[in-house]
Amino acid sequence: MSSPFDIEEMFPDDGDHPVRLPRRQAGNSPQGLAVTLLADYTLRDLAWLPSAAIAALLAEAQVSQTGARAAISRLVRRGVLEGSRQGRHTFYRLSRSAAADLASGGRWILTATAVPKPWDGCWTLIAFSLPQERGTQRRALRGQLRWLGFAPLYDGLWISPHELTPPDQARLGQVTGTVTVFRGRQADLDTVTNRDPLDAWDIAAIAGHYETFLRRWRPLLPQVSAGQVSGAEAVRARTEVMDTFRRFPTLDPRLPVELLPPGWLREPAREVFAAVYDGLADAAEQHVRAVVARFGGSPHTGIRAHLTTDILAGTVVPATAPSGLLPG
What sequence ranges are listed for the domain Transcriptional repressor PaaX-like C-terminal (predicted)? Predict the structure, then answer.
């Protein structure tokens, strides 16, 4: 099983989609950081931010000015950001398409890590056939299957403990390829070649990622509760905890607790994530507003730190931006 930092797309591109959100990769990707920052503080109102403010916030995460400018430019080319120039200043905001994907993705991250319903003992299997020369379509299909919580049991046969919902079916239908879907129970064979469907996931590795996450973030909770984390540190912590936690639904897509080792850490990790992300929201929001004001933007227009409750409720992306949110 690959590391969560090797998963090519948390929001896979189906080939016809108007935006291509950046790849999730090892370390701090400038494009990924920029998207996380804008999603965490401007998603609801599609607020415009001065380019200099975005660069300053990225600089606090050790991204150079050159790296920040390159990241912004690439995100515009991908259709993730859109720009507006006023005098000598340039402003950027999330495009509506990207914002809709991010809102959907954020809700998926939290619902996929919630306590699952009792499992009915059945597996969904997806068999597909695509020639090797159609590598782009194969990658797109695999990306969609990962997104839907599937893992490869064998080459060309992917498995999930959950049924495909109508939205899942529609999403899967966007990908080119010959696909057959089954759902049923495993028939145990009295042979050493019998493979447990759960073997499609590296359970020990997933448990290790949970343990690493908790070791990193649990010690911060007393400082969060005491209000001792503020300013740039609060923004960095919220960005990092989100960027790490968002990988768990792909690693552990609501695998049935009946099949997992005792003391599975999915719920403790989710609780710690919420405590850090929500607990630092006010301090982080104040800092983002101060940075935006420093570079000529309105510090109070459309800048709001999202909470886990906002994400779960589903952010409604406006069809058109209110005039008061335009730069200037």
Answer: 201-289
pLDDT digits (tens, 9 = 90+) for 111-145: 888 877 788 999 999 998 776 666 677 777 887 88
Boundaries of every domain in the chain = 123-184
Backbone angles phi, psi at 182, to 5 degrees: -125, 160
Which residue bears the tokens 């969904």?
124
Q: Which residues contact 257 (CB under 8 A, 6 or more apart)?
A: 116, 119, 264
> Whole-number mean pLDDT of the chain?
83
Tokens of 309: 């409750």
Alpha carbons 94 and 322: distance in angstroms, whole number: 14
Structure tokens belonging to residue 127: 């068999």
Task: Tell me which residue of 174, 278, 279, 185 sits closest to 224, measured CA to CA.
Answer: 279
Task: Identify any residues that bridge with 91 across adjacent strands, giving them in sequence order.
Answer: 50, 84
Q: Output the six-digit token pair for 264.
A: 């599975």
Phi, psi of 263 (to 5 degrees): 75, 30
What's the CATH fold of domain 123-184? Alpha-Beta Plaits (3.30.70)
Q: Residues 6 or more apart from 162 whose CB is under 8 A from it?
A: 124, 149, 253, 254
